[in-house]
Amino acid sequence: MRPILRVELYAALLPTLLASPSALAQSAASPSVALPELSVVRAPAPGVGTTTPAAENPGSVTVPSVARQRAAVNATVGSVGFVDAKDFQDRYANTLRDVLKDVPGVYAQQRYGQELRLSVRGSGIARGFHLRGLEVLQDGIPFNLADGSGDFYQIDPLALRSAEIYKGGNALTFGATTLGGAVNFVTPTAYTAFAPNILRIDGGSFGTIRENFQVSRISGPVDVMVNGTFTNSDGFRVHETQRTQNFNANIGYQLAPGVETRFYLGGYLTDQKLPGAITLGQSLNTPRIANPTAIAGNQSRKVETERVANRTSFVLDVGKLDIDTWAIHKNLYHPIFQVIDQDGWTYGISPHWAGTFDVGGYRNDTILGLRAFAGQNSAQQFVNIRGQRGAQTLNALQSASNYEAYGENRFWFLPDVALMTGAKLFSSNRTYSNKGGLPASPAVRYDNTTYDGINPKVGLLWQPLPDIQVFADITRSRDVPDFSDLVQQNLLGATFVPLAAQRAWTYEAGSRGRIDRLTWDVTLYRADLRDELINFSTNPGLGIQAATFNAPRTLHQGVEAAVSLDLVRDLTGTGDTLAVTQIWTHNDFRFVRDPVYRGNRIAGIPDDVLRTILSYRHPSGFYLAPSVDWVPRGAFADHANTLRVPGYALFNVETGIDFANGVSLFVDARNLTDERYVSDIAVVTNARTTVGGPAALAAFYPGNGRSVFAGIRASF
């Protein structure tokens, strides 16, 4: 059954579901004055392609306006980020890197196609695939599977209205308390869309062509939005063909004054060929080749995902109550070292209340929530015969359940100073059933483990001026292993390894705001970890799943900084502007007195990642934004720190024009000097002990060469 047909079937079950927006719908819990947005790219002229400027749109009960979304994010006592979709509408936004690359502290690096490494503060630092330690939500509703694992393919950049980044324990507003935090991708409604109708086509290098449409309507108490994107690309490398079809829709209904329900439907189809990892020499000299093993095994990833969710919101005398429910079905066909064939469901419910009231004459903001979600995944494996199933080697069932209660309170004991306290209680179970009966796995095996605990949080927020905030906080995080960690491949086949949960105390301090022409967002943090979940690839060239171990003690610390300055206003006397933005993420991740790796750097992510943008804007709608992505020193490829990849600098240019009639043209040119560089690494323990030595280590993903994309968008 195709994804869209499945969605139509699930629509018949929607009356049984209830849901709501998560924490970000609670504008009542936000300061009365929102901080200005840190603008790092050209913004469209007000009103272009819209019926009203986005900031003036009132939104609705379930999904507030973009201005209120930003205000809720900035009310957080801690490091956060906000991206308005207008900032990436006029670029080739194919992956989440294109959405998040201007957010300090977020490391998003492409491997191939839509596959990338997404890490915040070193979350999942050494994992060479998928996602760990970071919760991905869409419209405030979890997109991760019940065991905490996640993918990126279902998030369509062209179907977004904003992205909200809550780093580390600051994601408690959603109930998330992992090391990396949470990223919430918000889709538009008919109330927040740029225009009632949007048509777009873009394409360019590597045989890329993409079509997108969006239609939204309001009729009395009903509003509807439908968005679809179809992408075809041959890819930079051999055996990297990408075919995706994404469908998102939501239907809202105002049941009564202050009561609204909204249903979400999604169907996502990804068919991605995998070029595999190659050696460092090949990455720097012949980067377009594929690993021969990837071609021989016709390695690929085919994912069909369907999502149905509901959100119902009630405006009460004090605050607002939201209720979310969701169900996600995912089918994965993934021939790599073996054919991984999985099919599973995730479902959950989450009530959430947020309100503001007086305590002894002082303002008090409170958030309270519960989350209960679970799922089962049928996990089968087969011998890979040129991408087809051979003899079956595994027949297992993976079951996960999670029960959470969380709360956060901001007490304004002075008009401009708030004390924040919060905590999350959780219990997470992971059950693995190997049904056996196969030549490669004859024995039946049942493994069960439960992780539980409490994660507290405390902090201070000082807002001396409406446009300036200073904050400091201490948070406790707990990362529960997912099944990719717990079920590992070895000589005995698939074996359950009872790993400990990763624990950390994170300390952070920072400031964000604006003074005249200067806008900044700067945070310093330090995380002391116990039992960090560290990965290393046992044979990256073959695509075998990485092994995971608990490192006794590790340290993650760094700087997350973005500073923007309007250099010249009214440059030519026509109201045009010239601005410069510097984004800097400093990563210092290392082992602490480790019995094997001593004080070495944890491999996988470079020490410094810098991005500089010079942007010119003209009232006519024309803009020009050259930029440089600079990594002074590349990351280590191994935990023994014997092999480091070279640093690099990429020169890019974005330009285009927004016409007053709603038509926009853009050109997005990347890596114009055709720099040869390594984009990501499948980390190993020690490169020197690899068979054939470091020169034979196939653990590197080359970055894309020179590319140019162009597009046209019509909003009406």
TrEMBL record:
PANTHER family hit by this protein: FERRICHROME IRON RECEPTOR-RELATED, TONB-DEPENDENT OUTER MEMBRANE RECEPTOR
Keywords: Cell outer membrane, Ion transport, Iron, Iron transport, Membrane, Receptor, Signal, TonB box, Transmembrane, Transmembrane beta strand, Transport
Family under the similarity heading: Belongs to the TonB-dependent receptor family.
N-terminal signal peptide: 1-25
Sequence motif TonB C-terminal box, residues: 699-716
Protein name: Iron complex outermembrane receptor protein
Membrane topology: Multi-pass membrane protein
Pfam families tied to this protein: Plug, TonB_dep_Rec_b-barrel
Compartmental location: Cell outer membrane
